[in-house]
């Protein structure tokens, strides 16, 4: 199972346990963001297993197949600043942290996986000193150019200690949609512990297993996302690392996310009721049992049969179908449900970084929104389903001319 760009671990990423059960087996895919230029369309892209495991010791849900992070992240094409929804989310997020924890003015805020610096820009405006860490070379350079100092690399124990020695302790450390992307989570938390001020907080957002299972958000499973977090296993993990989870707050991004807040053990912040409430809800939903995840796998297959049947039926009637949005999760959905260029002619995406490229493995062309008027598809499958309302509102002209939208998740809907 091990190759130059991939290895399979044999222990739980949170507790180190060895009792791991396979609960969901998705179709192997190339890396979800490995878009290719026209010149490389003929070249077959390497695919990696997408198998989901349940830890029988601590109930953590995870991928054991680890693709080399340099393959995934050094030339990354996702930037948060292109999405108005996320810009607003990060503005509110920074406001929440400043208001709730009142960090010392001018103190250090560090963002792990800082991307284009969108979140840090709001902390900077609030009077904090900011520093980003991100492995994507081009994106880190661009963030620096716009005044958000960014170290290009992977955050871990050594980097945390080094930043603390050179710049002092951090009031706030954030990690958004990256705390699920890291194989060595223990090393990252060691780095956080070394860098955090005594009254500081570590705030992270991750896709939440409760929402993933309840709403069949299986396409959020791809190689960048090694972990599918729930609160129970995280409480135990932080405690074992000399830290304490003090809040577990539900937020709406990515179809349902968890905002966790941790402090150093014995820190000044009281543990909120949200932590015990989340653990109780997870137990009520059976997320501490492997069988619940196996039932989730069966739900995925039912959804795929319905969507695939609809698209093949429309194609049989001679309808033209295009996709809207080329997020990472579209790779999982298209592979697992067998939706390729035979069903979808092209995909619209608003990111100039993706336009003119072809989707990972399936090699469906990604075009700008002008292609809707030029090529006149009958149906648009909203692959970026978490932005469905905004996409439908923005494309009123398509709808008025008789075009229809298909929303594939959480349930198949034709609008």
From TrEMBL:
SUPFAM superfamilies: S-adenosyl-L-methionine-dependent methyltransferases (SSF53335)
GO biological process, one term: methylation
Pfam families the record matches: Methyltransf_13, Methyltransf_14, Methyltransf_23
Residue ranges annotated for the Methyltransferase putative zinc binding domain, each copy included: 12-73
Keywords: Methyltransferase, Transferase
Protein's UniProt name: SAM-dependent methyltransferase
Residue span, C-methyltransferase domain: 253-410
CDD domains in the record: AdoMet_MTases
GO MF entries: methyltransferase activity
